[in-house]
Amino acid sequence: MPEGPEMVFLKELAEPFVGQQVWEARGEAKGISFDRVKGQVLQDIKTFGKELFFCFPDFALRVHLMLFGKYSINGELNRVLQLGLVFEAGEINFYACDCRLLNAPWEDQYDWPTDVLHPAFDPEKALGKLLRSPGRFICDALLDQTLFAGVGNGLKNEVLFRQRIHPESQVGEIPASELRALIKATQALSAEYLEGKRHGEGEVHWQAYRQKICPRDRVPFLKAKLGKPPRSCYFCALCQRQYLPDW
DNA sequence: GGTTATGTTATTTC
DNA sequence: AGAAATAACATAAC
């Protein structure tokens, strides 16, 4: 479920509830006073990276699907309900996820344009932030939500493959032009996946992530846990260049 | 039954 | 104290 484009898509699915009053709020999520939510009018739905926010006048309900999160709109799943909101137009239910209540002014905690899908995402600003840690591996940097909110392990692998960059390349050794292209490709691929969701193309068509053979070189992808902390990387030893210091 | 996994955060360790 | 490693959590598929 949980990379940025999926969350924007979910936001769009839930948009019919905006402007409606919560008829019932329930679930097992700790730290949420469901009494406080009942009767409130949903003002807006926002996303930041992989986080989804149901915005009310004095607070927001934040949902993060983590690894195994599930949701159902106008239906129920056979699991422990974490958060369920019932409106006149229907209901939305969340399971196996992290749900929290954030008190106003909660929006100040987020640097919204850091989200690669935000209209104001600024590739140059991202490049500046990226270069502050020149010694880290690019596979780690791409997953850093303070740099590229919304990028998950799938997008990470895919964009590195597309740009022909080895995951264990050191940020400071990659030419700035390549980094710029990588950042723009990350933004573009996220938008492309969102557009695919909007057109009902269920699953994303991965070229590298979870794939066996490099479609360019017809050789097996290497699969390894790289980075700190280790995360699965799928990459081609032939076409993805590794940038490392000479010595 | 064991391993793996679209992710983050709390706790422990150095 | 603070950085870094480890554990924890939830769930389905192979």
Overview of this protein structure:
The protein has 247 residues and is α+β, with helices and mostly antiparallel strands. 25% of the residues lie in helices and 21% in strands. It is built from six helices and ten strands. The protein has helices at 4-14, 34-37, 123-130, 138-143, 153-162, 176-198, and strands at 24-26, 44-48, 51-55, 59-64, 70-73, 81-87, 90-95, 98-103, 222-226, 231-235. It has a four-stranded antiparallel β-sheet. A four-stranded antiparallel β-sheet has the order 2-3-4-8, covered by helices on one side. The protein has a two-stranded antiparallel ribbon with strand order 9-10. Helix 1 (4-14) runs parallel beside helix 6 (176-198) and helix 5 (153-162) packs across helix 6 (176-198). It starts with a helix and ends in a 12-residue tail after the last strand. The protein binds a DNA duplex (14 and 14 nucleotides) through residues 1-3, 6, 50, 64-70, 79-80, 95-98, 143, 145, 152-155, 209, 228-229, 231-232.
Ordered list of secondary-structure elements with their pairings:
Elements: H1 4-14, E1 24-26, H2 34-37, E2 44-48, E3 51-55, E4 59-64, E5 70-73, E6 81-87, E7 90-95, E8 98-103, H3 123-130, H4 138-143, H5 153-162, H6 176-198, E9 222-226, E10 231-235
Antiparallel strand pairs: 1-6, 2-3, 3-4, 4-8, 5-7, 6-7, 9-10
Helix pairs in contact: 1-6, 3-6, 5-6
The chain binds a DNA duplex (14 and 14 nucleotides) through helix 5.
The count of strands amounts to 10
State the distance separating the first and last CA atoms.
Answer: 41 Å
The CATH topology of the largest domain turns out to be Helicase, Ruva Protein, domain 3
CATH architecture of the largest domain: Orthogonal Bundle
Kindly report the spatial arrangement of strands forming the biggest sheet. 1-6-7-5
Largest sheet: 4 strands, antiparallel
Provide the number of structural domains: 2
Poorly predicted sequence stretches spanning 5 or more consecutive residues: none
Mean pLDDT: 94
Specify the number of helices. 6
What value does the Rg take, in angstroms? 20 Å
Tell me the helix content.
25-40%
Shape: elongated
Percentage of residues in DSSP E strands: 15-25%
Structural class label: alpha+beta
Quaternary organisation: single chain
Order of helices and strands: HEHEEEEEEEHHHHEE
Instruction: Please write the CATH class name of the largest domain.
Output: Mainly Alpha
